[in-house]
Amino acid sequence: MSAAVTMKWASVLSLETDTASAVAEAITQLKPRLGSRRPDAVFLFVSPHHAQHYHAIATTVLKQLGPHHLLGCSGNGVVGGEHEAEEVPAIAVAGAILPDVTLTPFRLEDNALPDADSSPRRWEAAVGVEAGTSPQFIILADPLSIRADEMLAGLDFAYPRSVKIGGLASGVRRPGQSALFLDQRLHRSGAVGLALSGNVRIETVVAQGCRPFGEPLSITKCARNVLFELNRRPALETLREQFEAAGSHDRLLLRQIPTALQLGLVMDAFKEGPPGPGDFLIRTPIGMDTKHGALVMSALLREGQTVQFHIRDAAAASEDLAMALRCYASGYLDAGVGVSLPPPPRGALLFSCLGRGKHLYGRPDHDSSAFRAHLGDVPLAGIFCNGEIGQVAGTTYVHGFTSCFGIFRATND
């Protein structure tokens, strides 16, 4: 009697500068780690150094590994094996054996997105998956050719209970430079993805890299993305007061680093008690209206919403990530108290901002090392993005300066 097939992942990275050698090395390393079974999905992440050979890379991977489905994209840094490779020639390949999981590939183009008044059925038709199958999504997109925020809002509308994780390709200066891999096709625009249903759970960790300062405040006057008043006082005046009350280290960061100041928006209108980690959607101020004492934000606001100013720097990002991973790991372990432990994580995908990595921390492999420190030897692959796709309070957003992990477990293993 043959043993039951269980979910299995493997991830490898090649830093060979010659494309053919890099692909051969990755495939040679990956095959024995997956065993003799044909992978259900292969994830391919490629740096722009190999741009002239994107199609050939995908063709070779499909031929040599024979996956049922291929999904991937290009980016200015890739994650594979146990390392993050930034701004160097690199190819990362991950393979997944996913028993009793139905995978549905899909592609979305900007000019064919259902409009805001469309029914969920239109989105189901565009993706090719019914919401009743409880799909979970991995989504990769070109940042220059699709309205990612509108796409995600539509998917949330049609699939409100579905997890969505992914990122926008990076290393792109003009339209047509991105590579989006989906099965036998190489796309240069739009979005591609896989919908997974059945014996699989995708659990997410979204680390936005900030820590709060000052006190929670209430928006008392705003107009779309312009913040006029906090606690019935001009927003800039309130910011100035909170800045002056902050510690000397925080004041220095806010003066020296233009992107250090952020605003956290509490997205759950029914949140009780003081907001804490995971309650905030972090958004960046994009301007000031000194005449009216207002802040211009990169997000729509609503009166009555609770907000708090945040600081973003290397220390805050490191602490935030460690806390998010620690909370996930402890929650996973606590779930098994008094009963049999749930199936362990088998693999993970990481979508991290270009602004993180060695440029933020001063050394490579920070976020992937933190992941291993809290979750152990779980195969990890991914890409440095021009925008990361992840959920906050049940709603999916495109983030910046964020690391979004999608962690895969079987529901029955």
Give the overall pLDDT as a whole number: 92
Question: Could you tell me the number of beta strands?
Answer: 27
Uncertain runs? none
Note the beta-strand portion.
35-45%
Structural class: alpha+beta
- Helical segment tally? 9
- Please describe the biggest sheet, giving its number of strands, its sense, and whether it closes into a barrel: 9 strands, antiparallel
Share of helical residues: 10-25%
Anisotropy-based shape: globular
How far apart lie the N and C ends?
A: 18 Å
Number of domains: 2
Rounded to an integer in angstroms, the radius of gyration calculated over CA atoms is 22 Å
Could you describe the 3D structure shown?
It is a single chain. With 413 residues, this protein is α+β, with helices and mostly antiparallel strands. It folds into 2 domains: 8-207 and 319-409, no CATH class; 218-311, no CATH class. Helix content is 25%, strand content 36%. Helix 1 packs parallel to helix 2 (54-65). The protein is globular. It starts with 7 loop residues before the first strand and ends with a strand.
Relevant terms:
alpha+beta; 413 residues; nine-stranded antiparallel β-sheet
